[in-house]
Write a structure and sequence with these properties.
Helix content of chain B: 25-40%
Low-confidence stretches of chain B: 1-34
Shape of chain A: globular
Number of strands of chain B: 0
Structural class of chain A: alpha+beta
CATH topology of the largest domain in chain B: Cytochrome Bc1 Complex, Chain D, domain 2
Number of helices of chain B: 16
CATH class of the largest domain in chain B: Mainly Alpha
Shape of chain B: globular
Distance between the termini of chain B: 42 Å
Strand content of chain B: under 5%
Number of strands of chain A: 17
Distance between the termini of chain A: 38 Å
Largest interface: A-B, 44 and 44 residues
Number of helices of chain A: 4
Mean pLDDT of chain B: 87
Number of domains of chain B: 2
Radius of gyration of chain A: 20 Å
Largest sheet of chain A: 9 strands, mixed
Radius of gyration of chain B: 22 Å
Order of helices and strands of chain B: HHHHHHHHHHHHHHHH
Structural class of chain B: mainly alpha
Oligomer: heterodimer
Helix content of chain A: 10-25%
Mean pLDDT of chain A: 80
Low-confidence stretches of chain A: 1-36, 267-272, 290-299
Largest sheet of chain B: none
CATH superfamily of the largest domain in chain B: Cytochrome c-like domain
Strand content of chain A: 25-35%
Order of helices and strands of chain A: HHEEEEEEEEEEEEEEEHEHE
Chain lengths: 319, 401
């Protein structure tokens, strides 16, 4: 009996390995197979934002990546395509538990801001509610890591923000000019009067013809990084803590001397240059190509900006 | 006609009453509402194409008019849509670049909104902006630049607690349990903007209303020069809306064009922020640098400074950014004439040179001083004075605050 069990399992694994087409297809096959053998298990991922080795504090001057007195006025990002990394190196899809608030079945919003920070003459953005959890189910198994994308999947990225389910209906997380979501919204300053960095990650150079709104994932510059967090021991997936290390994310960032519009890589206003790059490269994305450290580059988004860096090892997200 | 249609529809309802379900009835009533809307279109104008999710109604347009002029639709109650879209300037603002509530300067010139109901693409060069319903998010919530700077939902509470709005929203959106919503606000703004139809300029009276005395001899010579093959104006500024990018309910093939008209050189644009480089900002293609939608020339006599960057303006200018748009000592008319001559001279010398221009259209041509004057005289007849003063589009709060 036990032998048959192992045989079926091996068969399923080999089928999965043969169909190397798309991760999700593979996972469905495997998920279905495993479903017969064992039920799904709850996944509970907690994303703990830290700075200077301590728990993140919103709207409070803190030290980040060696820079003192950095105040965050926004800190939110979407997580999607969540998968667990199996002991055999394969991936299993995590189905998120839709709650009409922080999660749909495919996308979750992590939110570390409590709103109320007024900068300049502009009103305060954000909301009091926060969320650091991603909750879902996955086929039972032995897992060693987590993989996810920072952002909203391409086929959901151009929804009507007014009619979509929460958390895809938050006006503040929608980039109307580009008709897509802000995948990441980190905003911070050392002096609210002179230097606010608005780091908004989102797809650019998307199709401008065809369906309204554009539906496919053919934006030239996706800016949607895939993050892999690997552990060593079998993961306790019912209570997994992931540190989001702002010291690593802002490492090398030297844009505090002026207001920066990092949307994501280009400067739309004064100060547009390549100083946003470290915020991108630290999460595995290529930035803009600079001809020198400080010369403003106005050529727009480079062809490869927002695509995956080769040989990238993530150190921002870790167990 | 309208009554006949309604009566006919009643018959249909009675005959098939038992088979009709609620969604179908709702759909039919929406369709009827849309058909019932009276456009009052000028002679020669097609009916605008309206998104199915937001059929026109007078109630929505009425609500949208209040919202358009309401400063509570900004982060600090200091600006409204109308702050950068002034009726007397055909809903443009006379400035080189407008600025938002925090002083952020917009990278492009404020466009007029006249006949925007016929625009299949909105703004100067963003082909993703396809409906007024979606586009208004940009000025309302956009952060680069900050325009009206709404960052949270407090504006909705203000509207909900207002003495006027709850009833206006309820009337405009009778099927909604909670009508005072962000989406309905945008839908109403879109409906109001679609009512901003202008088609009774002297040029219209001559061309569409066949009043032979509407244009004088010089203006008629200008019209013929405009439509001639020397200057080629009409290629990009043709048709009833004097632009080549239009959409209406008879449109089968959606034609959308962006052109580089040679206003700026490549070297100049290369040194500009991407937001000032036209279509390239959205497509990322070098071949799209400096390309913009050809604006409608209607009311061109009041929509200076011209071009996407407001770079063509009348001489002076001790005070070129004066909100009225007119430099000291000039009148609106003298300013427009002065600046229009500069445009004609730019085109007649073949533009300032850019690899993306269509050289069959943007190329030097000879033009006499008299022809320039005739052309300007004609362009000035495109102003619809009646529209600029039409009280249906004016500030409904003007007697209140």
């Amino acid at each position: 009996m036990k032998n048959i069990f192992i045989l079926v399992f091996l068969l399923l694994v080999s089928i999965a390995n043969c169909t190397q087409s798309k991760d999700s297809d593979t996972n469905k096959t495997l998920g279905l197979g495993l479903g017969l053998l064992a039920s799904n298990t709850n996944v509970n991922l907690t994303f703990n934002l830290t700075a200077d080795g301590r728990a993140f504090q919103f709207n409070t001057p803190i030290t980040v990546a060696g820079q003192s007195n950095v105040t965050f006025r926004d800190a939110r990002f979407y997580v999607s395509s969540v998968k667990l990394i199996r002991i055999d190196g394969g991936l299993s899809d995590v189905t998120l538990t839709s709650d009409n608030k922080w999660q749909t079945e495919r996308v979750a919003l992590l939110d570390y801001e409590t709103g109320g920070v007024t900068v300049g003459g502009s009103g305060a953005s954000g909301t009091a509610d926060t969320n650091n959890r991603v909750i879902g189910t996955v086929a039972s198994g032995i897992y060693t890591g987590v993989q996810f994308e920072l952002g909203v999947p391409a086929d959901l990225n151009h929804l009507s923000v007014s009619t979509a389910s929460s958390p895809l209906n938050i006006q503040n997380m929608y980039w109307a000019w580009a008709s897509g979501y802000k995948f990441v919204k980190l905003e911070f300053f050392t002096s609210s009067a002179t230097n606010v960095t608005n780091f908004h990650l989102g797809s650019q150079n998307c199709p401008t013809t065809g369906a309204t709104p554009p539906t496919s994932g053919t934006c030239a510059n996706e800016f949607r990084p895939t993050i892999r967090v690997l552990g060593t021991t079998p993961l306790n997936i019912s209570a997994t803590n992931i540190t989001v290390d702002l010291d690593k994310w802002l490492d090398g960032y030297a844009g505090y001397s002026a207001n920066r519009t990092c949307m994501p890589a280009q400067g739309l206003t004064t100060g547009g240059d390549n100083s946003c790059n470290s915020l991108l490269t630290n999460i595995g994305l290529q930035g803009r190509v600079s001809t020198s450290g400080t010369t403003p580059q106005y050529s727009g988004v480079d062809a490869n900006a927002g695509k995956a860096l080769s040989n990238f090892t993530n150190s921002v997200f870790k167990f | 006609m309208g009554i006949g249609f309604l009566l006919g529809s009643c018959g249909v309802f009675q005959k098939e009453k038992e088979g009709l379900d609620l969604p179908l009835l709702t759909f039919l009533s929406l369709t009827l509402n849309n058909s019932a809307y009276q456009w009052n279109l000028p002679t020669g104008f097609p009916t605008p194409k309206v998104p199915v999710e937001n059929p026109m109604s007078q109630a929505k347009a009425d609500l949208g008019r209040f919202l358009f002029y309401d400063k509570r639709l900004s982060g600090n109650d200091s600006m409204s849509c109308s702050s950068c879209h002034l009726q007397e300037l055909a809903f443009s603002d006379g400035k080189t670049f407008p600025s938002g509530i925090t002083g952020d300067i917009h990278p492009r010139n404020s466009q007029q909104l006249v006949n925007v109901a016929y625009a299949p693409r909105l703004t100067w060069a963003n082909p993703l902006q396809r409906s007024l319903e979606a586009q208004s998010r940009v000025p309302l919530f956009g952060e680069s630049p900050i325009e009206l700077g709404l960052t949270n939902d407090s504006y909705l509470s203000k509207l909900q607690n207002d003495s006027r709005y709850p009833a206006l929203f309820r009337t405009a959106f009778p099927n909604d349990a909670n009508p005072v919503s962000e989406q309905n606000l945008r839908f109403a703004l879109a409906s109001f903007q679609r009512t901003l139809i202008s088609g009774n300029s002297r040029a219209d009276q001559a061309i569409y209303q066949k009043k032979s005395s509407a244009l004088n001899a010089s203006e008629l010579r200008g019209l013929s020069f405009f439509n001639g093959e020397t200057a080629e104006c009409f290629h990009c500024h043709g048709g009833f809306n004097f632009t080549d990018t239009v959409l209406h309910n008879q449109t089968v093939f959606e034609e959308v064009f962006y052109h580089n008209n040679g206003t700026r050189t490549k070297a100049f644009l290369d040194a500009q922020p991407i937001a000032k480089q036209g279509l390239k900002e959205i497509t990322g293609q070098d071949s799209d640098q400096g390309k913009f939608k050809a604006p409608s020339l209607r009311n061109v006599g009041v929509t200076f400074p011209y071009m996407h960057d407001g770079s063509i303006m009348c001489d002076d200018a001790t005070n070129p950014n004066k909100p009225s748009g007119v430099a000291q000592g000039a009148t609106k008319e003298s300013c427009a004439r002065n600046a229009l001559i500069k445009i004609i001279e730019q085109y007649s010398r073949g533009g300032n040179g850019h690899p993306n221009v269509d050289v069959t259209l943007i190329r030097p041509f000879s033009i006499t001083d008299q022809e320039k004057q005739d052309l300007v005289n004609f362009l000035m007849t495109l102003t619809d004075e009646e529209f600029l003063k039409n009280s249906n589009f004016s500030n409904p709060f003007r007697n209140e605050r």
